[in-house]
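sry for the spam today, last one i promise. struct tokens for design, 369 residues
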């Protein structure tokens, strides 16, 4: 399964060659765009990898020499746990693999649109599934009692996932969904709670992707969100705020001002996206969603408009286990309304409109919880 001395990968996007990753030495990985991509492609990381025939090799040590956009393709949390268990079954240690080996394992199954060849991953195939069965098997993984778990099935359905909660990626009636199960610290009805959070966010005027509550016989249901990085069997390039700024979402070193600054610099819907970000910031504060780290905000490349836009909102839920917001607001972990308005003023948003947004979101949340 694992080839020796894998030193080069071809990076692709919907069948087109984007460029090449080459390991020069451990933790020094170079990237160069393909000549064909320079003609009609776009910068896959707007700050770090502008379109140029330059050889880029200043990837981050925290990503073992990769740039953040490639690190975004790798799973964390649940997905990484599954890959570790799969490799352990084969007598292999995930930590001993080079970054290129890890990307080759993900191949075409990562979040976003980038694909990596040659592949060392498992071939995708349609598998029968029952959400309750998958939830119970995921629970066994979490509890360390997975002796009778179908790891192959779980890996195929969720091995490229991020986040701590178990999840699977499923295509249902030709629509691709991410469906979540409870983690060890979640209440039994976490799926219904996240569904209600998204309902509230929609009522508050946030741009929330299509979502639904999938039925269950053992709980109140499983929350599912339609994938915004997929559209009619085509992949959409996606990069997280953390990936753009070449930082880890585990560092908690960013403020919402960083999000607004990135929107200001790269969004082709700047005013619309700044107001959308303001709504999300307010919703997270008043709904007490403090798990608002830098990987929970992303940008997608719009091929029609030829530029980046803020992705739909995702991972919206209450987080009583966090004492402060993971991204500060005006340098505050527990901000006031005035801190929200300080951010609005800094980016010259219409203050009366922002005050109206605050009032609307506070009222809707108060009336529905």
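last one done:
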């Amino acid at each position: 399964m694992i080839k020796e001395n894998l030193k080069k990968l071809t990076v692709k996007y919907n069948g087109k060659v984007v460029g090449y990753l080459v390991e020069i030495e451990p933790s020094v990985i170079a990237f160069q765009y393909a000549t064909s991509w320079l003609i009609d492609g776009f910068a896959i990381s707007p700050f770090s990898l502008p379109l140029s025939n330059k050889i880029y090799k200043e990837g981050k040590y925290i990503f073992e020499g990769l740039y953040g956009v490639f690190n975004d393709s790798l799973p964390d949390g649940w997905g990484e746990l599954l890959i570790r268990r799969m490799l352990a079954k084969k007598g292999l240690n995930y930590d001993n693999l080079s970054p290129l080996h890890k990307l080759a394992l993900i191949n075409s199954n990562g979040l976003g649109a980038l694909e990596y060849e040659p592949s060392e991953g498992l071939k995708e195939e349609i598998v029968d599934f029952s959400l309750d069965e998958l939830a119970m098997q995921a629970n066994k993984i979490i509890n360390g009692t997975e002796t009778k778990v179908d790891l192959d099935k779980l890996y195929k359905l969720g091995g490229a996932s991020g986040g701590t909660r178990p999840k699977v990626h499923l295509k249902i009636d030709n629509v691709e969904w991410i469906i979540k199960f409870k983690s060890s610290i979640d209440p039994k009805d976490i799926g219904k709670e996240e569904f209600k959070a998204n309902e509230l966010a929609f009522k508050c005027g946030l741009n929330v992707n299509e979502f639904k509550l999938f039925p269950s016989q053992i709980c109140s249901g499983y929350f599912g969100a339609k994938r915004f990085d997929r559209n009619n069997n085509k992949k959409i390039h996606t990069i997280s705020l953390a990936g753009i700024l070449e930082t880890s979402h585990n560092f908690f070193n960013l403020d919402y001002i960083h999000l607004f600054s990135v929107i200001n610099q790269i969004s082709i819907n700047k005013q619309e996206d700044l107001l959308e970000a303001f709504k999300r910031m307010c919703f997270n504060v008043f709904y007490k969603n403090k798990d608002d780290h830098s990987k929970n905000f992303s940008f997608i490349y719009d091929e029609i408009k030829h530029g980046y836009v803020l992705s739909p909102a995702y991972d919206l839920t209450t987080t009583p286990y966090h004492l402060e917001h993971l991204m500060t607001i005006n340098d505050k972990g527990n901000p006031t309304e005035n801190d929200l308005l300080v951010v609005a003023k800094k980016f010259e948003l219409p203050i009366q409109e922002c005050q109206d947004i605050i009032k609307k979101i506070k009222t809707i949340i108060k009336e529905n919880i």
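The two ends are 50 Å apart (CA to CA). ok im logging off now
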